[in-house]
Amino acid sequence: METAGAALDPRHWDPRDPAFRHDPIPWYRVLREQAPVHHHPEVGYVVSRHADVDHVLRDERFGVATPPAWREAFASVAPPSVRMLSENLLLFVDPPQHTRVRALVSQAFTPRRVEGLRPRLTEMVDTMLGDLASAPSFDIVHDIAEPFPIMAITELLAVPDSDRDQLRDWTLALTAFDDIPIDVAALPAAGRAADEFLGYAAALVEHRRRDPGDDLISALIAAEADGETLTNDELMAMIILLLIAGHETTMSLISTAVLLLLDRPDVAAEVRDDPNVAPGVVEETLRFMGPLQVASGGGRWPHEVVELCGVDVAPGAMVRLLLGSANRDPSVFPDPDRFDLHRNNSRHVAFGKGLHFCVGAALGRLEGQVVIPAVMRRFPKLAFVDPTPTWRSSFVTRQLMELPVTTG
Ligand code: HEM
User: Fold this and answer.
1) Which of 147, 120, 117, 150 has the alpha carbon at shortest distance from 132?
2) Which CATH number fits domain 4-9+31-406: 1.10.3660.10, 3.10.180.10, 1.10.510.10, 1.10.630.10?
3) E strand or H helix at 377
4) Is the C-beta atom of 156 inside 6 A of ligand 1?
5) DSSP 8-state code for residue 405
6) Residue 6 — pLDDT band, cuts 50, 70, 90?
7) Which sequence spans correspond to the domains of the chain?
């Protein structure tokens, strides 16, 4: 469906505009068509076409580590523990550190370990949905989409169920300041959360060093390549990143998928009746309205002058990749604004590409494939309380604040 996009002018694009944040799709189209590498004074170079986004994600002339001037500016406002994390998380480090840490993490976080979780996740979903079975109404976000990813990751890390609420609160505090500009008011709470979270992760690592088990933390400790292992700081940062990166993203995937299905009864019926479309509903939700609309919060930074669509981008300039726009590019996805379970989605960039391709993609996919069809099957008469969704106001993430439903 063509929208009022023709009336929009890229020069007036504002990533803080509530209308853009509510529905970015018309703006994505205008940016792709008229200004595929668009410079915005606060956001840097914004890249919106699939070919260019895909290219920059794989082009090693771009890094993710923030240049010194930006790092110093952040250091002047951020508490030390937040700064330490932002400089050590895998998502914000370049080779050679990235190559070494990623190789070690890949040894521990294997597809086999993830697939091994399937029976346990299925059981958890059954219990969770069973607890809701007699409720006439509930909230998809608060009762299903938010708790389930935390359950999955705590299972993988083998941390006690009783820690889940605390872990969720820390991860939320650590992402609350990520906006344009950075929400400085949220930084002290993020600092307290980071201090406590680091203390918690340190205790876990110490415990698993003494008493290893068959869990991901023990596997991360045991991982070794060319005589190298992860340092204590790298281990703690990794545990925290797994919790942060795996929480809000998967929560968004699950709740957005249910929203899209409630709006499309035919597709919902197909998901309910045919178990083979479970991967299709996950991939199409990721493409159509993926959890991360923009790659890496810190952006990409060229190490040398790089030409993109006729624009010379120089070192020190920030490049932001609009994953959500690339996934609606009609040159790769015909009729991109149609939600189609059966389209070829092998080229979507919802998990990124290249060096920083999502470590948890297999887990996010598995969680979605287990829980989304289960919700549709358990509650065949599920309906909106209010069909107008409330999205979190964000440039980077696509996240429902709530999704109240009735069970009929
Ligand atoms: C549907 C759910 C998810 C989505 C859409 C998603 C999306 C992404 C994207 C787009 C990136 C790359 C960002 C960039 O290149 O700038 C990424 C990286 C990452 N993701 Fe995910 N993610 C999801 C789930 C998870 C889960 C469940 C985990 C772990 C438990 C996880 C852990 C990570 C980590 C550690 C990285 C950094 C990889 C690196 O820098 O090498 N993600 N994710």
Assistant:
1) 147
2) 1.10.630.10
3) helix 361-378
4) no
5) E
6) low
7) 4-9+31-406
pTM: 0.95
Model confidence pLDDT, tens digit, residues 109-143: 999 999 999 999 999 999 999 999 999 999 999 99
The residue nearest atom 12 of ligand 1, judged by CA position, is 352
Please check the confidence at residue 185 and state whether its pLDDT lies above 90.
no
Tokens 């307290």 identify what position?
192
253-294: pLDDT as tens digits: 999 999 999 999 999 999 999 999 999 999 999 999 999 999
How far apart CA 144 and CA 125 sit, in angstroms, is 9
Rounded Cα distance between 22 and 11, Å, is 19
Geometric angle at alpha carbon 171, from 165 and 177, rounded to 5°:
135
Do residues 246 and 361 touch, judged by C-beta distance below 8 A? Answer: no
Q: 104 in ligand 1 pocket by Cβ < 6 Å?
A: no
Query: Cα separation of 49 and 31, whole Å?
Result: 8
Query: Can you tell me the distance from the alpha carbon of 111 to that of 99, in angstroms, rounded to the nearest whole number?
Result: 19
Taking the mean position of all CA atoms in its chain, how far away is CA 184? Answer: 22
Ligand 1 atom with least separation from CA of 368: 1
* Alpha carbons 39 and 318: distance in angstroms, whole number: 10
CB atoms within 10 A of CB 130: 10
> Tokens 């699939």 — which residue?
50
Pocket flag, ligand 1, residue 246 (CB < 6 Å)? yes
- State which amino acid sits at residue 242: L
Q: From the centroid of its chain, how far is CA 369? A: 16
